[in-house]
Predict the 3D structure of the following.
Amino acid sequence: MNAGVDRGRVARAVRELLVAIGADPDSAELSATPERVAESYAEFFAGVGVDPQQFLADAIPVDGETGELVLMRDIALRSVCEHHLLPFRGLAHVAYRPGERVVGLSALPRVVAALAERPQVQERLGEQIAEALVTGLAPLGVLVVLEATHGCVTDRGVREVGAEAVTIASRGSLAEPAARAEVMALIAPGAERCAL
Ligand SMILES: Nc1nc2c(ncn2[C@@H]2O[C@H](COP(=O)(O)OP(=O)(O)OP(=O)(O)O)[C@@H](O)[C@H]2O)c(=O)[nH]1
Ligand SMILES: [Zn+2]
């Protein structure tokens, strides 16, 4: 159960943060900032306490004709790193080989969002998406590829502006190298991408 982000408490903390950096939270420019940040945090952390299984509960009837592979590629990925509370963003590609259950396609971005909108690290996020699909769909295989740039890597610390982290989580038949390579070819960037 998601108790939701306590906006008032976030706003009070942001006000304190503004004081701590030497800014004046009562100035005309900053007076509404704590509330604005609280609204932003409510979006960033909307997935805290949300059970992704709710999005996988309703199967689509396909009368056994599941096809061999379902892939949603280029799902927008927005998360927040748990080390610095800075955004990391990019794309999620989610594939599964159906067992008997197939869900509506929109369920996959919803699972990604629910697990991403909380303090995260990229590797754990990928594993949690894969595990949610295993639990909810009992598929033959799962492959989750995440590619993201991290604010804490691009804008502070090492300041590697172009660097992207790519992580893979796999289960079952899609952990097998040839099957994995087939899916990776489908999610290759731009012109190198395989057409189905
Ligand atoms: N593996 C992994 N590391 C992450 C992720 N997000 C941020 N990090 C890294 O977590 C590490 C945190 O390291 P710390 O030594 O605690 O923090 P730091 O001193 O700010 O590290 P620097 O970023 O190197 O300055 C850094 O190397 C970050 O780049 C993630 O999703 N996965
Ligand atoms: Zn970080």
